[in-house]
Known about the structure:
Elements: H1 13-29, H2 35-41, H3 48-60, E1 64-65, E2 74-75, H4 77-86, H5 95-105, H6 112-127, E3 130-134, E4 142-151, E5 154-161, E6 166-171, H7 179-193, H8 198-225, E7 229-232, E8 240-243, H9 246-251, H10 254-281, E9 287-290, E10 302-310, E11 316-325, H11 330-350
Amino acid sequence: xxxxxxxxxxxxxxxxxxxxxxxxxxxxxxxxxxxxxxxxxxxxxxxxxxxxxxxxxxxxxxxxxxxxxxxxxxxxxxxxxxxxxxxxxxxxxxxxxxxxxxxxxxxxxxxxxxxxxxxxxxxxxxxxxxxxxxxxxxxxxxxxxxxxxxxxxxxxxxxxxxxxxxxxxxxxxxxxxxxxxxxxxxxxxxxxxxxxxxxxxxxxxxxxxxxxxxxxxxxxxxxxxxxxxxxxxxxxxxxxxxxxxxxxxxxxxxxxxxxxxxxxxxxxxxxxxxxxxxxxxxxxxxxxxxxxxxxxxxxxxxxxxxxxxxxxxxxxxxxxxxxxxxxxxxxxxxxxxxxxxxxxxxxxxxxxxxxx
Length: 356
C-alpha cells in the first residue's frame, strides 16, 4: 500500500476509465471485474493485456485489490473513497421512492417517536438496507454533565437537563484522555452550564478559548521581545514556547513564565473540552463513511450514508442514514437519505411544539 493515495488528476484518461468501470461493475454485482469484461465495455478498442497492465498499475497505487490470484479486481477502501469523492454520479430521486417516503409519513398527527419509527421502516424498505434514525436532541438548559470512560477510544456523556430529562451518548474522545481528564472536563462544563443549552455551551467554551488565547499572546509577546523565549510551531495545536537559555531566566520574571505555563495548560484543557462538545454535537450535510472510516462498523466491511436534519431554528437536532455493505449504490442512496432528512426536518419544524 503506498504512503499516499493518488488523486484523479494523477490518472490518465485510460486509467481513469478503467478505474471507474471496475468500481461501477463491483458496485453493481459485488463481484471482481476482469480484463475481458472491460475490453467489451471500454469506449476505445484495447487488448485484454493492456487492460491488465492498467489494472496492475491501479493496484500498485492502492486503488484496486485482487481477492484471488487469478480473479479480477475490486476497489479498495481508498479506491471507493476516491470514486465517491470524484467520480460518483448522484441520480435524481426516483418518483416511486419519493412517493413511498411521503406516504409513510402521511398527513396525520401522532407523536414524533412514532413518526421516526415509520420513517425508519420506509427508509429501510426503499433502500433495502438497515436504516438509522437519531431522534431530536433535547434543547432544554443543562443542569449537569458527566463523562464516563468506557475504554481507550470510547466514552459516555451523561446530560442532565433542567426539566429532569436525562440523555446518554457514546462518543470517541480526543486521543490521550484519561478518566481524570474526563472528570476535569465534566466539572468545568457543569460549573458554566447552568441555563445553557448544549449548543449555547459550545459557544461559551469557544469564547473561553479565545480569551485565554489573547492572554497568552500578550504575555508571550513581551517575553519574545526580551529574547527570553521563542515560539515553535506557532498557531498550531503543537505550538510551544522554548526558553532560549537558562542565563536569560536570571533577568526574566519567573512569575510570567509560570503564568504562561498555566495558560498553556488551561488552553489545552479547554481545547479538549471543545473537542468533546463538537464530537457530541455531530456534523452537517450528507456524509459517506466507508469501512474503517466509520468507527461503529469498521470490522464489518460496511458503509454508512447519513444526513442530519434541522428544526425551525436551523439547528441540527437529529440524523437519518442507511447502513449497508461497502458496495452500496451510493448514487441512488445519497438523494434518498438527503430527501428523507429534509422531509423529517420539515415535519419536526411543523410540530416543534410537540416533541416528546
